[in-house]
């Protein structure tokens, strides 16, 4: 007689199934309250301009007195799931041509090149309290050199992936980015719209982030 033996495993002896997570690539766009934006001016060292319609990076004379202005942006990355990998972060900045500087509108190279740099902020700050005297610290690590403008209404699209990836991984070390002119000599200007701009619906700063999770 031929006997057929069926073997199996007890419940506690069977291997536990392993779930394999296949990462997917997703994209989000930060704007409005997800981006803090402000400029501050050395001529008005205690004045907060967080609600201004413009974020201007400049060296100019205001009523005959010299002043420097720098721009600060920070990003709310809380909508990106934990343990994600930032693949790309692309910042779009639109020119502000509604303000008149020395009979010109928008970016200005009136006295020479308005080339500028983007640097990483390394201390905390708030849009509604920042002033020239309380502006945050920054470092030069990975600074991005930006070319001078080719027209007053030029739109800049900048890859800031490294900065955003570092901030996502270290939210208590990095707090956004800062702009300043390479040469802070009067009559040079990089002029962008803020999220409070008259034409903010189409011209506010936006950050498009592609990530894998």
Structure, explained:
- The chain is mainly β.
- It has a single domain, classed as Sandwich (Jelly Rolls), CATH 2.60.120.
- It is built from two helices and 13 strands.
- It has helices at residues 161-169, 200-203, and strands spanning 25-30, 35-41, 54-62, 65-75, 85-93, 100-101, 104-105, 116-121, 138-146, 156-159, 177-181, 188-193, 206-212.
- Strands 2, 3, 4, 8, 9, 11 and 12 form a seven-stranded antiparallel beta sheet that branches.
- A hairpin with a 2-residue loop joins β3 (54-62) and β4.
- The radius of gyration is 24 Å and the shape is elongated.
Proper CATH architecture: Sandwich
SSE order: EEEEEEEEEEHEEHE
Counting DSSP E segments of at least 2 residues, the number of strands comes to: 13
Sheet-strand content, in percent, reads 35-45%
Relevant terms:
213 residues; mainly beta; Jelly Rolls; seven-stranded antiparallel beta sheet; four-stranded antiparallel beta sheet; 39% strand; elongated
């Amino acid at each position: 007689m031929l006997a057929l033996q069926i073997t199996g495993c007890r419940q506690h002896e069977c291997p536990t199934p392993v779930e394999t997570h296949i990462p997917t690539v997703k994209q989000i766009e930060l704007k409005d309250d997800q981006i803090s934006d402000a400029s501050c001016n050395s001529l008005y060292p205690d004045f907060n301009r967080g609600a201004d319609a413009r974020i201007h990076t400049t060296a100019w004379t205001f009523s005959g007195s010299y002043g420097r202005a720098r721009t600060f942006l920070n990003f709310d990355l809380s909508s990106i799931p934990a343990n994600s990998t930032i693949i790309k972060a692309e910042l779009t900045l639109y020119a502000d041509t509604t303000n008149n500087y020395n009979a010109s509108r928008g970016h200005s190279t009136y006295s020479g090149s308005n080339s500028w740099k983007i640097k990483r902020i390394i201390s905390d700050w708030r849009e509604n309290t920042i002033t020239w005297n309380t502006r945050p610290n920054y470092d030069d690590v990975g600074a991005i050199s930006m070319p001078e403008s080719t027209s007053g209404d030029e739109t800049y699209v900048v890859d800031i992936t490294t900065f955003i990836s570092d901030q996502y991984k270290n939210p208590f070390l990095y707090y956004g980015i800062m702009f300043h002119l390479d040469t802070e000599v009067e009559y040079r200007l990089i002029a962008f719209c803020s999220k409070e701009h008259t034409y903010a619906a189409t011209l506010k700063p936006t950050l498009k982030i592609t990530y894998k999770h």
